[in-house]
Amino acid sequence: MSAARRWGRRRLLPAAGDPLFVYGTLQYPEVLNELIGRTPELEPAQVSGRRAAALPDRVYPGLVTATGAVTHGFLLRGLTAGEWQVLDAFEDDEYDLTPVSAHAGECEVYAWTYTWKAEALEQDWSVPVFTADHLPYYAAKCAAWRRELVLLTGTV
């Protein structure tokens, strides 16, 4: 979907400052810098009862329910309302923005995350494979997407 069409999507977004649990491509500073122009604070965290699944014909994962699974990722803190809009516009329509209980150190934190609602593969997504084989191309794709968004909407 184009950046402009996603930008026009109407969804109630979390409040500025609400944490976002990221487990896939949004955990990479290279991707965040291209999308929102900075890397917010990344705090190691995990979510139980879900796994970061590989997806058919995609290099990014989807978070799906899985009994006994634990997904490691990060909490993004300090997102502005505009950054929430950009990240939400970027995410595929097959994601739902869902509240979750994440564990960061000894603390339980209520956060938002993008959960996958379409077909997922049996295997988990691989951070090392994505990093080695896809990250530079993916970051460049994010930069192009952001340029399209700026051109079509006039936002920065």
From TrEMBL:
For the Gamma-glutamylcyclotransferase AIG2-like domain, which residue ranges apply?
A: 20-124
- The answer to keyword Chaperone applying to this record is no
Alphabetically ordered keywords of this record: Transferase
- Does the record bear Secreted in its keywords? no
Entries under SUPFAM superfamilies matching the protein: Gamma-glutamyl cyclotransferase-like
By its UniProt entry, which Gene3D superfamilies does this protein fall under? Answer: Gamma-glutamyl cyclotransferase-like (3.10.490.10)
Name of the protein in its database record: Putative gamma-glutamylcyclotransferase
Species annotation: Nocardia acididurans
